[in-house]
Amino acid sequence: SPHTPPQVRMYSCGPTVYDYAHIGNLRSFVCADILKRTLLRAGYEVTHTINITDFGQLSDDGDNGEDKMMRALKKAGKPITLSAMRDLADEYIDAFFDDFAELRCLPPTTWSRASDYVAKQIRLIKTLEEKGYTYETSDGVYFDIAKFPSYGRLGDIDLASLKSGARVEVNQEKRHPADFAVWKKGLLGWDSDWGKGFPGWHIECSAMSHE
Predict the structure, then answer these.
(1) Does the global pTM surpass 0.70?
(2) Given CA atoms 134, 137, 142, 145 in this order, what sign does their dihedral have?
(3) Which residues contact 124 (CB under 8 A, 6 or more apart)?
(4) For residue 107, is the peptide bond before it cis, meaning its omega torsion is within 30 degrees of 0?
(5) Which of 9, 3, 95, 113 is nearest to 51 (CA)?
(6) Are 143 and 182 in contact (CB under 8 A)?
(7) Residue 80 contacts by C-beta under 8 Å, 6 or more apart in sequence?
(8) How confident is the model over 18-73, as pLDDT tens digits?
């Protein structure tokens, strides 16, 4: 039940805007819309946020690979700059909004664009670092799941049974295969205490849902 009935605060994942959405992508927005409509029909007041990921979505589940937005810039023949990345994202955001409307999904209270919250994400990573939950490697900053004993509880994940390299390329610098990047170093991105780069997508939703 909600913390403060009849108000419900709902956050659901939006698109990564490096390409046009396909039907599999769009399914998730219909599912969230059904949940929202159910809550509204039950008499709740819903404040709904959907994020838009316009940077930093890697092409590999193991926090490796190339950033999908950078790959899209190269494919489009555009310069590898933050301003060009924003312009490219704008094109796909407009196309997504058209798809969203055609699906007749109810618009959220807020569309939250990841690149507008980078400073907030950096502050959150810094807080995790100060509390001892992270460690730095040559390619980024990782969340150390061993420091958070209840990690995986919501998904009923048996961390002891996870095997490094079962689905993704092994990163020898990670302490545990399930550790995830909260900051990825790179040639393109924002300046931080850990060098130029961008926040990992795991930290993106945490920062924006808090905001």
Answers:
(1) yes
(2) negative
(3) 203, 206, 207, 210
(4) no
(5) 113
(6) yes
(7) 70, 73, 74, 187, 188
(8) 999 999 999 999 999 999 999 999 999 999 999 999 986 654 555 566 678 888 98
